[in-house]
Amino acid sequence: MMKMKPQLRVLVYLLGMSSLLAACTRAAAQASPPPSRLEQITQIRVMRVGVAVDAPPFVYLDRQGERQGFDIDLMGEIARRVGVEVEWVDAAYIRLPEMLRTGKLDAAVGAIACSIEWEEGVEFSLPYHQPAQPAPPGRGTLCILIPPGQPALAEKLHQMIAELAVEGFIERLNGKYLYMRKELQ
C-alpha cells in the first residue's frame, strides 16, 4: 500500500468535500420552488396589466390620449399599495385570457364581467363593481382577470379589493366615473 504525502491527502480531502458541497447546493437549488408571480412582481416592482381600452367609463382615452377610468384608478391604487408601478399593456379584449395564461400579463381589466365566458384558464378577483340594475348575461358584476395557478397574487388582489371597498375608495370611484357613463358613450 502506497503512502500519500500529507499535502496530497489534504488536496484529495478538499476535492472530495468541494464535490459534496456542489452536489448539496445543486440539490437545494432544485428543491426550492421558483418564486411566485407575486414575489416576482414585488422584486421587479412592476405589475403588467392588460387593458381593453374601449370600455368607458371603466377604461377610455382622454383628449391627450392618456388612459382614464374606474379600472385605471383602481389598479393604480392597488399597485401603489403593493409598492409597484403599473405597466399598461393594451390588448384586444379577446386576447387577454391567453396573455394571462402565457405569463405576458399579471392581471387584466377593462369592464371585464365575472362570467362563464372567461372561466377556462383564468381566475377572477373578488367583484369590485355591481350594477345598480340587473344586467344581461355576460355583463354586470366586474372583476379583475388573474392568471391561473397564482394563489398568492389572487389572495393579494382579493385583499386589496376588500380593503378598498371597506375604506370607501370603490364607492368614490363610482361617484367619480359612473355619472360620466352617458356622456362618454
Description:
Helices cover 44% and strands 12% of the residues. The longest helix has 26 residues, at 6-31. It has a single domain, classed as Periplasmic binding protein-like II (D-Maltodextrin-Binding Protein, domain 2, 3-Layer(aba) Sandwich), CATH 3.40.190.10. The mean pLDDT is 81. The chain has helices at residues 6-31, 37-44, 70-82, 96-101, 151-166, 169-177, 181-184; strands at 46-51, 60-61, 67-68, 85-90, 107-109, 123-124, 145-146. A hairpin with a 5-residue loop joins strand 2 (60-61) and strand 3 (67-68). Strands 4-1-5 form a three-stranded parallel sheet. The chain has a two-stranded antiparallel sheet with strand order 2-3. It is elongated and about 90 Å long. By secondary structure, it is an alpha/beta fold. The chain has seven helices and seven strands; from the N terminus they run H-H-E-E-E-H-E-H-E-E-E-H-H-H.
Given this structure, which CATH class is correct?
A: Alpha Beta
pLDDT averaged residue by residue: 81
Number of structurally distinct domains: 1
How many individual helices?
Answer: 7
CATH homologous superfamily, by name? Periplasmic binding protein-like II
Walk across the major sheet and give the strand order. Answer: 4-1-5
What is the 3D shape?
elongated
Q: Which class do the helix and strand fractions yield? A: alpha/beta
Q: Which ranges are low-confidence, i.e. pLDDT below 50, for 5 or more consecutive residues?
A: none
Which second-level CATH architecture applies?
3-Layer(aba) Sandwich
Query: Rounded to an integer, what's the Rg over CA atoms?
Result: 25 Å
CATH topology: D-Maltodextrin-Binding Protein, domain 2
Amino- and carboxy-terminal Cα gap: 94 Å
The SSE order reads HHEEEHEHEEEHHH
DSSP strand (E) fraction? Answer: 5-15%
Helical fraction equals: 40-55%
- Write down how many β-strands occur, each being a DSSP E stretch of 2 or more residues: 7
Q: Report the sheet with the most strands, covering strand number, pairing sense and barrel closure.
A: 3 strands, parallel
